[in-house]
Design brief:
By secondary structure, this protein is of the alpha/beta class. Helix content is 29%, strand content 18%. The structure holds ligand TNX. The site of ligand TNX has 9 residues, from loops.
Length: 726
């Protein structure tokens, strides 16, 4: 009964190909946009706000073919078709002048492409990751940006009409294999192309470098280490030689990571028995911190010492950045004799991902881990359930994933969103993350943001109300009922299974947005009233409802601590006055960090800093950057992220006793592809990594920007997307 409406809608949306010719997107109904597979637009197209292009990209989720050849549209903005995996064919506007950066990033169904002669420029990474693109025709002479055709491994023909080679960045076709991809140019112009930067790769002529690429350690490390000492007089290390890895017992994982990094970067043989350069990994209990390390580079190799395997691993992350150097190439040739001595400022550096609102397929979720580990993040927080979905298998309650992991719609995006993680997958994720020293922290919300569970088990809410799964963002007034024993039985069973899957010492219990607006749900409930009476709660100014919430939390905290030895975590709410000693509260609301910090100090609790102003990476980084249309989010600039003071002006005692760490949140109401998680996260996550890892006296905004440039260039080379709106 409950699922019929969404099934009908699903059938409507996916049934049959639908071709549409209209002037503008606003001429189509919401249903037509969602059903369209082939759209021809003939009008003057808008590119800002909820533009024709934003609607094409985000609302026409089934789009396979777009014909813009008759449209008036001189600019296709950055990200115009970012990660549209179904788009197989596009006819570009006949008056197109500019194609923005990442315009077709990861459009991995696109097979052929014809760029009009009117085009003046092709942005950075415009076609990066168009993995099945076979044929490109470039009319005219557009300036072609860095990494424009990165990882277009299926390219077989690039055809040009101009006898004069267009100006191309040296990296525009960096990953082209000249054995399999032909460059077709006007007769007589081969010589010119052969000599031209960017095009010479087609003639098997790798860029001739002007000598060795030498790493400058202080200019390339992010987050910046405590100290970097270069000895310019000592003989440097040549890295493109064979390598031998010698690792102490217990560092087998780090030895494997080291072999991977050296192999990928240097392209040289890596073994445990022979090699010219030696990488030695060992443990040194005299270091100051579990994550501290000392990395020494000499003429003969590299030594990394850590107090624990985690420290050794962070030494390796630093080594990889030294090999990458200024990212002029995948790997440098020479690193000067250097000693890096390093330790983290805060001990939990987290990114939070939300597969509840828009599901993140398992393999994509896994792939997120190595990237965050590069910047020394050590916790991945998974927001596994919310009003819109339940995403984790619970064996005792198969209804949860059967009935609440599939829906149509996230606000105006009328697409089917479905999926959940099995417990076996989560165990695999945990094991994989551990090889990158990342702890996976699960979150199950209570008493709010629980509509998915209530949808499956109406007895979880007051009066057994039947509630549909939410398909829009925002806050629901339907809460778990603290007066019903079933609530505790249910949560207890869920946590019993979670504790077995996630070995993390932490577990997040949500707690946000369940009291404001008022908890009428509880005020009018007979079970809640009976509970209030039993507890002697007589107030009627709404504090009674916060006390009921406290009762619920106290029971769950007790269960989690005594049965599973877990430290509970919560989103901070001002009205919720008492945080249990030792628990972790998350400061998230814009403008309320002072209050959260004082509450943590008062309650002897620990506090995670993720204030919206600095750490909400679901917000756009600038106006007009993705997401262009949202529920009214403010902007969180890169500078705002960087300027977060993790001690919040409180000084050392607070930092020692209360500060837990820093977190960046990637709520996914508006993040409609896995690639866009990276786009929202980076480079703000890199700024946050430095906030969380590096001491204030060694870091600066200018220094960060300088060191960010090679970091981002390397991401481009590796085909990873990020925002450039800073
Ligand atoms: C508020 S942050 C929420 C989330 C939303 C987010 C969107 C928090 C604890 N609650 O449910 O996804 O805003 O930015």
């Amino acid at each position: 009964m409950k699922i019929i409406p969404s099934l009908v809608l699903f059938a409507l949306l996916s049934g049959g190909a639908s071709a549409q010719t209209v002037s503008r997107m606003d001429d189509l109904t919401a249903e037509a946009k969602a059903a369209a597979t082939d759209i021809t637009l003939t009008g003057t197209l808008s590119t800002t706000g909820n533009s024709d292009l934003r609607q094409l990209r985000d609302l026409c989720w089934q789009l396979r073919r777009a014909d813009l050849s008759k449209a008036d549209c001189p600019v296709l903005p950055a990200n115009a078709f970012h990660s549209r995996h179904r788009l197989a064919e596009i006819l570009l506007p006949a008056n197109l002048k500019r194609l923005g950066s990442q315009a077709f990033f990861a459009c991995d169904a696109l097979t052929t492409l014809s760029l009009p002669a009117t085009l003046d420029s092709i942005g950075e990474a415009a076609f990066s990751g168009c993995a099945v693109l076979q044929e490109v025709t470039i009319a005219g002479t557009p300036v072609i940006g860095a990494f424009a055709f990165q990882n277009c491994d299926a390219l077989r023909t690039v055809r040009l009409t101009s006898a004069v080679p267009p100006v191309a960045d040296a990296t525009a076709f960096e990953t082209i294999d000249p054995e399999t991809c032909r460059l077709v140019v006007p007769e007589g112009s081969e010589k010119a192309y052969k000599k031209a930067e960017g095009w010479n790769v087609f003639f098997n002529k790798k860029q001739k470098s002007d000598g060795d690429i030498v790493c400058s350690p202080a200019d390339v490390l992010l987050p910046i280490p405590e100290s970097v000492a270069v000895d310019a007089d000592a003989k440097p290390l040549r890295v493109k030689c064979s390598w031998r890895i010698s690792a102490a017992a217990g560092l087998e994982n780090e030895a494997a990571q080291a072999a991977r990094i050296l192999g990928e970067r240097t392209g040289q043989a890596v073994a445990t028995d022979k090699g010219r350069n030696v990488l030695t990994l060992c443990l040194d209990p005299s270091l100051s911190d579990d994550e501290a390390y000392i990395l020494s580079i000499t003429e003969t190799g590299v030594d990394i010492k850590g107090r624990t395997a985690a420290g050794v691993f962070y030494g390796l992350m630093t080594l990889e950045q030294l090999l990458r150097a200024d990212a002029a190439a995948l790997c440098c040739d020479v690193i000067p004799a250097t000693v890096v001595s390093d330790a983290p400022r805060t001990h939990i550096r987290e990114l939070m991902v939300d597969p509840a609102r828009i599901f993140v397929p398992f393999e994509e979720l896994k792939a997120f881990i190595p990237e965050m580990a590069r910047y020394k993040f050590n916790a991945l927080h998974l927001h596994l359930v919310d009003d819109q979905a339940w995403r984790i298998e619970i064996k005792k309650y198969p209804e949860l994933t059967a009935n609440a992991s599939s829906r149509v719609g996230m606000d105006d995006m009328q697409m089917p969103i479905s999926g959940y993680y099995t417990q076996a997958q989560m165990k695999e994720l945990v094991a994989y993350a551990a090889t990158y020293h990342v702890d996976v922290v699960p979150e199950i919300e209570m008493p709010g943001h629980e509509v998915a569970a209530i949808h499956c088990f109406p007895q979880l809410t007051c009066g057994g109300k039947e509630v549909p799964i939410r398909t829009t963002c925002g806050v629901s007034d339907d809460l778990l009922c603290p007066g019903s024993e079933f609530t505790y039985e249910f949560l207890g069973n869920v946590f019993r299974e979670l504790a077995e899957v996630f070995p993390s010492p932490y577990i997040h219990l949500g707690g946000d947005e369940a009291g404001n607006p008022a908890l009428d749900c509880w005020t009018n409930c007979t079970d809640c009233r009976a509970l209030k009476q039993r507890l002697g709660i007589t107030t009627t100014d709404r504090s009674e409802n916060w006390r009921l919430q406290k009762y619920l939390f106290d029971r769950m905290i007790d269960t989690l601590r005594t049965k599973y030895d877990k430290t509970p975590m919560f989103w901070y709410e001002t009205d919720f006055k008492e945080i249990q000693e030792g628990c972790v509260t998350f400061a998230w609301r814009v403008g309320l960090t002072d209050a959260a910090v004082q509450a943590a100090i008062r309650n002897k609790a620990r506090i995670m800093l993720c204030p919206g102003e600095h750490c909400y990476f679901d917000y756009p980084m600038a106006r007009g950057d993705m997401p262009e249309v949202n529920w009214g989010m403010p902007v969180t600039t890169l500078y705002e992220t960087y300027s977060l003071d993790p001690s919040w002006g409180q000084g050392e005692e607070f930092e020692r006793n209360n500060l837990f760490g820093v977190a960046g949140t990637l709520w996914s109401e508006c993040i409609n592809s896995p690639e866009r998680i990276y786009y929202q996260a980076y480079p703000r996550a890199q700024a946050l990594s430095e906030v969380g890892w590096s001491r204030a006296d060694v870091r600066s905004w200018e220094g960060f920007l300088k060191r960010l440039a090679p970091t981002l260039r390397d991401m481009r080379r590796r085909g990873v997307t990020f925002s450039t709106a800073f």
